[in-house]
Amino acid sequence: MASSPSYVRDMKQERKTQLARGEGEDNRKRKKARREATKLGMVKPKDGKDLDHKIPLSKGGGNTPANFRVQTPSQNRSFARTSSGAVKKP
């Protein structure tokens, strides 16, 4: 449903709610990893490559260069799926 024309989002409240839920922590870690990989020369700023975590942060992977790999966006953003659409397990 569309919002009314006079509706204004309360961005401060949305951010407060996001932090209370614990959202955004992994995103902060991913951005830190990208900065670190840029310093190490693994990736260049705005080179079109993705920095991937071999073991995802959501699965307990670390945020160290040993867990980084550089991939193309098509490799990093697609996953093998079953006929029902679920992600295949390796």
Structural class: alpha+beta
Low-confidence stretches: none
Largest sheet: 2 strands, antiparallel
Number of helical regions:
3
- The beta-strand count equals 2
Helix/strand order, N-terminal first: HHEEH
Using the alpha-carbon principal axes, give the shape: extended
Structure overview:
- The protein has 90 residues and is an alpha+beta fold.
- The protein contains three helices and two strands; from the N terminus they run H-H-E-E-H.
- The protein has a two-stranded antiparallel sheet.
- The longest helix is centred in the middle third of the chain and has 16 residues, at 25-40.
- It is extended, with a radius of gyration of 18 Å.
- The termini are far apart.
- The model has no long low-confidence stretch (mean pLDDT 87).
Briefly summarize what is shown.
The chain has helices at residues 11-21, 25-40, 73-76, and strands spanning 50-53, 68-71. By secondary structure, the chain is an alpha+beta fold. It has one domain (12-76).
